[in-house]
Amino acid sequence: MSTSIREEKKAVECGYWHLYRYDPRLNEIGKNPFQLDSKEPNLPYREFLDGEIRYAQLNNTFPDQAEKLFERSEQHAKHRFAVYKSMSKSHQDSESH
Predict the structure, then answer these.
(1) What does the alpha-carbon distance between residue 82 and residue 15 come to, in Å, rounded to a whole number?
(2) Residue-wise over 37-61: b if at least 16 C-beta within 10 A, else e?
(3) Full-prediction pTM beyond 0.70?
(4) How confident is the prediction along the chain (97 residues), in pLDDT tens digits per residue?
(5) What DSSP state is assigned to residue 22?
(6) H runs (alpha helix) in 1-97
């Protein structure tokens, strides 16, 4: 537990976890209610996974399957970030037309 905040920060920095806010009241004043707070990932995704006991155990027990799952997880995280990034800009784009 003493390193939980540091691990949470790493999860955000590698793109495993994304920070965002949604405030429907912003719609009423013409602003996008979805705000992405996370920046582009700047830490290797696998570095975070390797530091987590649950993933290390999976890798020790089923190394071939774990590798495939880790790769899929990273691709999914990248896709989610791209979708969230698009959502955070979509309101601005529709207003400019």
Answers:
(1) 11
(2) ebeebeeebeebbeeeeebeebbee
(3) yes
(4) 568 889 999 999 999 999 999 999 999 999 999 999 999 999 999 999 998 999 999 999 999 999 999 999 999 999 999 999 999 997 654 554 4
(5) E
(6) 4-14, 25-28, 45-50, 53-61, 63-95
